[in-house]
Amino acid sequence: MRISLLATLFGVCLFTSCALQRGTGPTVREIGDGLWSVTLRFTPEGEFERVHLAGEFLGWDPEGLEMLDEDGDGTHEVTIELPMGRHLYKFTLDGGEQWFSDPLNPHRTPDGYANSILYLGVDPDDYPEDQEPPSPPAPDRPWLPTEQQTEPTPRDEPNVRFELIDDGFDEVFVTGDFNGWTGQLDQMERGDDSGRWTLRLRLDEPVWSRYRFVVWRGDEWSTIRDPENPQISFDGHPMDSVVFTPGADRGVVEILSESLTASVSTCEARAVWAWLPPAYFTETDRRFPVLIMHDGQNVFDDPLNPFGHGGWHVNTIAEELIAEGRIEPFILVAVPCNGERRMEEYGMDEDVMDASEHPYARYLIDDVLPLVTARYRTLTGPASTSVMGSSMGGIISFYLAYHHPDVFGQAACLSPAFMIGDASERTLLDLVRAEGKRPVRLYLDSGTAGECEDGAPQTREMRDLLIESGWVLGDDLVWHQEEGAAHSERAWRARVWRPLEFLCGER
Fold it and tell me: What per-residue confidence (pLDDT) applies to 72?
């Protein structure tokens, strides 16, 4: 059961293999009242004992529903009733030892995990996150066809300057939103003495535009992000650079570090990103609180994130909440996980009672936060420094605030994995029972879907324990239960406004 809990609740990287199949694909039949009957078939190869269906609708439990081979022909079947909508699933062998996409279903998520997709009574075109990102066409000179751009972007009265250090390029172009990503007419000029390619353009309206450079060496070309501009878009792959024209009122994601090395802890180096709110550029004397989010690769409005449910869209949701006056502007720092060691990195380490040597905690305190405060205009101190995460990211958020209240004064824990323990199987519940109240504000929530109910029973147990220990519900403790919500980025995105209001709203 412990393997089941881990795989269900914490986005374990799923291994996908291929298997020789025979028979037909999913059999789908509408049965009324918005329900569909779906029969799935799978013919695994090799040695195994059990075959199961796992899926988003089962909380990704690797033993969600057993599939049976009643006629002994090697093909295992299961029939399930599902509501209208889009549903993700996979097949598992022996309780999750191996995970398989459905070889008989061509619909799969393009996120590297290849979850099979059922569309029941809905149009697949309504789910752009399921579409493979378009690849640039193989170019003749000029770089791309000219249908979308018939003349150069205006150069009179320019308000934007593009620069690129020469690295032996023969030609350089700028391509972006403002020229339809064609770019072949927006050619940069190389200065004889400066060693730089430059181009000045006029972008007429206040705008936030993505762009890249198209560079040629001989007959070979490539596109590159602007190496001197840390501001990027996170709404697709590859990352694009971002340019503002005067008056553009929009937040932006920046590369805080391409690879931030740990100075003391054993955490591996990784990229770190920061989102700056619109006010950061318009109120230049103002300082801003800081929110650190774990699983930072999933934080922004990226439709292609690794877990297949779309990003949290915290940047765009925060902008809406700020514009409506529901929260104050803040700086968001996104720290991605180490995918292969995520469970270990966000886990409770050897001793949940002792925070002194936790590698990830030390990495945030000794390396990430000092870089943030050195780079940006921040408000410092625990009242202005928060952490937030989901699943394993939820318990490491709780752990950080509880053990380091002098650094992190607030924590938001979505679908937290409170059943995960240290090397002696002691959990955060045991920690709170032993140590009692700490001067931190806490937000807890969960869904209720899946065999493990998205961890709702343990979250309610922690809520009750915190109240017994002195936290006041509605004051320094907020708890929410989202009925029917699954354990996925899609669900967290839908309710992330709640912890944002708790962390960044009026006290």
Answer: 92
DSSP class of 364: I
Measure the CA–CA gap between 279 and 462, rounded to whole angstroms: 37
Is 208 within the bounds of a domain? yes
CA of 94: how far to CAs of 54, 98, 138, 484, in Å? Answer: 12, 7, 45, 28
Structure tokens given for 297: 């690769």
155 strand-pairing partners = none
**What is the Cα–Cα distance from 333 to 336, expressed in whole angstroms?**
10
Are residues 499 and 458 part of one domain?
A: yes
- Report pLDDT digits (tens) over 340-395: 789 899 999 899 999 888 999 999 999 999 999 999 999 999 999 999 999 999 99
Boundary of a domain, candidates 79, 108, 130: 130
Does residue 182 lie within any of the structural domains?
yes
Residue 347 lies in a domain: yes
Q: Is residue 106 part of a domain?
A: yes
Compute, in degrees rounded to 10, the torsion defined by CA atoms 477, 481, 482, 485: 110
399 and 267 share one domain: yes
Which residues have C-beta within 8 Å of that of residue 47, sequence separation ≥ 6? none
Positive or negative torsion for Cα 487, 416, 384, 253: negative
Residues 6 or more apart in contact with residue 340 via CB below 8 angstroms: 13
Paired tokens of 303 = 């439709």
> What pLDDT shows up at residue 210?
87
Q: What does DSSP say about strands 252-260 and 270-276: parallel, antiparallel, or unpaired? A: antiparallel
CA 475, CA 473: separation in Å to the nearest integer? 5
Say which residues have a Cβ less than 8 Å from residue 343's Cβ, sequence separation at least 6: 6, 10, 12, 392
Number of separate domains in the chain: 3
Helix (H) or strand (E) holding 163: strand 160-165
Domain extent at residue 82: 2-130
Judgement on whether residues 208 and 79 belong to the same structural domain of the protein: no
CB-count burial class (<10 Å; 0-12, 13-18, 19+) for 448: middle
Which residue is listed with tokens 């640039």? 136
pTM value > 0.85: no
37 closest CA partner among 48, 29, 26: 29
What token pair was written down for 216?
A: 């040629």
Q: What share of the chain is helix, strand, coil (3-state, %, to 5)?
A: 25, 30, 50
| HSE (side-chain half, CA atoms, 13 Å) at 37 | 6
Encode pLDDT of 76-103 as tens digits: 999 999 999 999 999 999 887 888 999 9
pLDDT, tens digit (0-9, with 9 covering 90-100), for 140-178: 444 454 455 667 888 999 999 999 999 999 999 998 888
Q: Using CA atoms, how far apart are residues 343 and 256, in angstroms rounded to an integer?
A: 25
